[in-house]
Amino acid sequence: AKVTVIEYASATCPHCAELWTASQPLLNRLKMVWMPIGLLRPQSGPQGATILAAPDPAKAMTENETSVMARGGGISVPSNLPDDIVQKVKDNTALFQQLQAESVPLIVYRHAVSGEHGMFAGALDTAGLATLVGL
What we know:
By secondary structure, this protein is an alpha+beta fold. It has helices at residues 14-23, 44-53, 57-69, 83-98, 126-133, and strands spanning 3-10, 30-37, 106-110, 117-121.
């Protein structure tokens, strides 16, 4: 993909779920790196770890985001999450905090045309996301 975008997301965030859906049509031109963090609710971190630990994380993310958008509880968390995966979510959360961010979704990107780096907090529709990153 021409552009890589890092998105910090909470598994319980409806705006993050909207951005997941909006990004799907752009995935042939855009690489999205989803960074689950522990924010908003106590289950955010464990649900993020569940998604990362899944055999097919994209499928698990779709399951979670579909549930969140339908006002469900998100993906079910198993009782035995691997410690290294739980730590990855904690590390992602620490990176988010180092950016002094306050809300999710947080999009970190490099504009495809200008080359400038930027951050954007909030959900965007497909066209808005494409414009933000210069596609």
